[in-house]
Amino acid sequence: MAKYDLPATIYYILNQTGDEQLFYVGHSQGTAIAFARFSEDQELASRVKHLMALAPIGRVGNMTSPPLLLLVPFAKEIKSRSDVYLSHVPAGASALTLMQWVQGVKSGQFQHFDYGEQENLVKYGQKTPPLYNPRKVKVPVAIFRGGRDWLADTSDVEWLLPQLNVTHDIYVPFYQHLDMTYGFDAVTRMYKYIVNIVMGKD
């Protein structure tokens, strides 16, 4: 998603609109792929005027989300039977995406996908997957986070923040991970700041 889907989406929008830049609003995984790609592709990053990161994700070693934690002990089985499992998911999903999240929980690192030592040597020229470096993300970032987020854990987010060019840090102590997209009061607690940034009022 970071390497292919994100650049394809951004360039498609810019080509269709004729604009030089756009605003990017991402939630959870949508922020992770942005941080990953913008840290390694400065040309693409230069096309983003401002990044609004809702429930920002870099590393997830401290997350306490029960569904994801339940998957960790069964990582090998999930990988070997992923076609069977994922064929029953209504919206579809990628086995490698699930494995990437499990990898992040186990390693506590924000890094490329781990294919195993031999394949890593072929793909990356080293036995371990390279780390992403959020300090290389030059795009201005507005952070929107909650204090009760099981996935974007406070300690992981606080690891991420000093490495980014943060323009806003909107914090709602009682918000959980999905409140930013489904919360009835998200309009006043989150979205008004996004609108103001896009309109140049903040």
From TrEMBL:
SUPFAM superfamilies in the cross-refs: alpha/beta-Hydrolases
Protein name: Lipase
InterPro entries associated with the record: AB_hydrolase_1, AB_hydrolase_fold
Matching Pfam families: Abhydrolase_1
Domain AB hydrolase-1: from-to ranges: 4-75
Keyword Lipid metabolism part of the UniProt annotation: yes
GO biological process, one term: lipid catabolic process
Keyword Lipid metabolism: yes
Keywords for the protein's UniProt record, in alphabetical order: Lipid degradation, Lipid metabolism
Alphabetical list of PANTHER family matching this protein: LYSOSOMAL ACID LIPASE-RELATED
